[in-house]
Amino acid sequence: MKLNLGCGPNSLEAPWVNVDIVAAEGVDVVHDLERAPWPWKDGTAEGIAAVDIFEHIAVRARITFMTECHRILEPGGLLQIQTTYWRSWTAFTDPTHTGFFTEHTFDYWIPGTTLYRNNAFYGGVSFEPVMIRKPPPGTEMVVILRKPAISGPAAP
After folding, report:
1. Residue 51 maps to which CATH number?
2. Does 75 fall in a domain?
3. Mean pLDDT for back-to-back runs of 10 residues, the chain (156 residues)
Protein backbone atom coordinates (compact mmCIF):
# COMPACT_ATOMS: atom_id res chain seq x y z
CA MET A 1 0.00 0.00 0.00
CA LYS A 2 1.07 3.58 -0.69
CA LEU A 3 -0.56 6.60 0.94
CA ASN A 4 -1.17 9.97 -0.69
CA LEU A 5 -1.73 12.15 2.39
CA GLY A 6 -3.67 15.39 2.11
CA CYS A 7 -4.48 14.61 -1.51
CA GLY A 8 -7.16 17.27 -1.98
CA PRO A 9 -8.16 17.20 -5.66
CA ASN A 10 -4.85 15.50 -6.61
CA SER A 11 -5.75 11.85 -6.20
CA LEU A 12 -3.44 9.15 -7.55
CA GLU A 13 -4.26 5.81 -9.21
CA ALA A 14 -4.00 2.47 -7.35
CA PRO A 15 -1.95 1.24 -5.55
CA TRP A 16 -2.18 4.69 -3.94
CA VAL A 17 -4.73 5.26 -1.19
CA ASN A 18 -5.82 8.91 -1.28
CA VAL A 19 -6.37 10.48 2.13
CA ASP A 20 -7.87 13.84 3.04
CA ILE A 21 -9.81 15.49 5.86
CA VAL A 22 -12.63 16.29 3.41
CA ALA A 23 -14.79 13.71 1.67
CA ALA A 24 -14.49 14.57 -2.02
CA GLU A 25 -14.14 12.91 -5.38
CA GLY A 26 -10.99 10.78 -5.48
CA VAL A 27 -10.60 10.60 -1.68
CA ASP A 28 -10.48 6.96 -0.52
CA VAL A 29 -10.09 7.55 3.22
CA VAL A 30 -11.33 10.57 5.18
CA HIS A 31 -9.14 11.17 8.24
CA ASP A 32 -7.81 14.11 10.24
CA LEU A 33 -4.02 13.66 10.03
CA GLU A 34 -3.59 15.71 13.20
CA ARG A 35 -5.23 12.93 15.23
CA ALA A 36 -3.67 9.59 16.12
CA PRO A 37 -3.95 6.77 15.63
CA TRP A 38 -4.24 6.80 11.88
CA PRO A 39 -6.43 4.01 10.48
CA TRP A 40 -3.64 1.73 9.24
CA LYS A 41 -1.77 -1.06 10.94
CA ASP A 42 1.90 -0.83 11.88
CA GLY A 43 4.34 -1.40 9.01
CA THR A 44 1.74 -1.66 6.24
CA ALA A 45 2.75 1.20 3.90
CA GLU A 46 5.65 0.87 1.49
CA GLY A 47 5.52 4.56 0.71
CA ILE A 48 3.91 7.81 1.81
CA ALA A 49 3.57 10.98 -0.26
CA ALA A 50 2.75 14.20 1.61
CA VAL A 51 2.62 16.93 -1.01
CA ASP A 52 1.66 20.40 0.20
CA ILE A 53 0.19 19.14 3.49
CA PHE A 54 2.94 19.43 6.15
CA GLU A 55 2.70 23.23 6.17
CA HIS A 56 -1.02 22.95 7.02
CA ILE A 57 -0.54 20.64 10.02
CA ALA A 58 -0.89 22.37 13.40
CA VAL A 59 2.41 22.98 15.18
CA ARG A 60 1.88 20.43 17.96
CA ALA A 61 0.46 17.87 15.53
CA ARG A 62 3.66 17.73 13.44
CA ILE A 63 5.15 15.27 15.92
CA THR A 64 2.02 13.13 15.59
CA PHE A 65 2.38 13.35 11.81
CA MET A 66 6.00 12.16 11.87
CA THR A 67 5.45 9.40 14.44
CA GLU A 68 2.38 8.06 12.63
CA CYS A 69 4.23 8.05 9.30
CA HIS A 70 7.03 6.10 11.00
CA ARG A 71 4.58 3.68 12.62
CA ILE A 72 2.73 2.74 9.46
CA LEU A 73 5.74 2.63 7.12
CA GLU A 74 7.24 -0.80 6.61
CA PRO A 75 10.97 -1.08 7.34
CA GLY A 76 12.78 0.53 4.39
CA GLY A 77 9.62 2.42 3.39
CA LEU A 78 9.91 5.94 1.99
CA LEU A 79 8.29 9.16 3.17
CA GLN A 80 8.29 11.99 0.65
CA ILE A 81 7.34 15.43 1.93
CA GLN A 82 7.00 18.42 -0.36
CA THR A 83 6.47 21.59 1.66
CA THR A 84 7.01 25.32 1.69
CA TYR A 85 10.56 26.54 2.05
CA TRP A 86 10.95 29.47 4.41
CA ARG A 87 12.47 31.66 1.69
CA SER A 88 9.65 31.01 -0.78
CA TRP A 89 7.01 33.67 -1.36
CA THR A 90 4.38 30.92 -1.10
CA ALA A 91 5.34 30.28 2.54
CA PHE A 92 3.77 33.55 3.65
CA THR A 93 1.04 33.93 1.03
CA ASP A 94 -1.37 31.17 2.08
CA PRO A 95 -3.17 32.15 5.31
CA THR A 96 -3.69 28.47 6.18
CA HIS A 97 0.04 27.75 6.43
CA THR A 98 1.04 27.04 10.03
CA GLY A 99 4.79 26.96 9.51
CA PHE A 100 7.73 27.47 7.20
CA PHE A 101 10.57 25.00 6.92
CA THR A 102 14.29 24.82 6.27
CA GLU A 103 16.62 22.07 5.16
CA HIS A 104 17.27 21.43 8.87
CA THR A 105 13.64 21.09 10.04
CA PHE A 106 13.71 17.31 9.67
CA ASP A 107 17.06 16.93 11.49
CA TYR A 108 15.08 16.24 14.68
CA TRP A 109 14.37 12.79 13.18
CA ILE A 110 17.74 12.12 11.50
CA PRO A 111 20.46 10.50 13.65
CA GLY A 112 23.85 12.17 13.47
CA THR A 113 22.50 15.70 13.05
CA THR A 114 22.90 18.37 15.72
CA LEU A 115 19.15 18.68 16.32
CA TYR A 116 18.65 14.92 16.74
CA ARG A 117 19.91 15.17 20.33
CA ASN A 118 16.38 16.40 21.15
CA ASN A 119 14.73 13.43 19.38
CA ALA A 120 12.99 12.13 22.50
CA PHE A 121 10.96 15.35 22.62
CA TYR A 122 10.02 14.94 18.94
CA GLY A 123 8.41 11.52 19.06
CA GLY A 124 11.54 9.38 19.45
CA VAL A 125 11.43 8.02 15.89
CA SER A 126 14.27 8.03 13.39
CA PHE A 127 14.57 8.21 9.63
CA GLU A 128 17.48 7.95 7.22
CA PRO A 129 17.81 10.87 4.80
CA VAL A 130 17.52 9.91 1.14
CA MET A 131 17.25 13.44 -0.25
CA ILE A 132 16.78 16.89 1.21
CA ARG A 133 16.60 19.41 -1.59
CA LYS A 134 17.29 22.98 -0.62
CA PRO A 135 15.27 24.70 -3.31
CA PRO A 136 16.04 27.78 -5.34
CA PRO A 137 14.10 30.89 -4.24
CA GLY A 138 10.37 30.76 -4.89
CA THR A 139 10.04 26.96 -4.97
CA GLU A 140 9.19 24.21 -2.51
CA MET A 141 11.44 21.95 -0.53
CA VAL A 142 11.40 18.19 -1.14
CA VAL A 143 12.46 15.81 1.61
CA ILE A 144 12.66 12.03 1.17
CA LEU A 145 13.22 9.98 4.29
CA ARG A 146 13.51 6.21 4.75
CA LYS A 147 12.35 4.26 7.76
CA PRO A 148 15.39 2.23 8.81
CA ALA A 149 15.27 -1.44 7.83
CA ILE A 150 15.68 -2.36 11.49
CA SER A 151 13.81 0.09 13.64
CA GLY A 152 14.16 0.41 17.36
CA PRO A 153 14.00 3.10 19.99
CA ALA A 154 15.82 6.35 19.32
CA ALA A 155 19.35 6.74 20.57
CA PRO A 156 19.69 8.93 23.68
Report:
1. 3.40.50.150
2. yes
3. 97 97 97 98 98 96 98 98 91 92 96 96 97 84 94 50
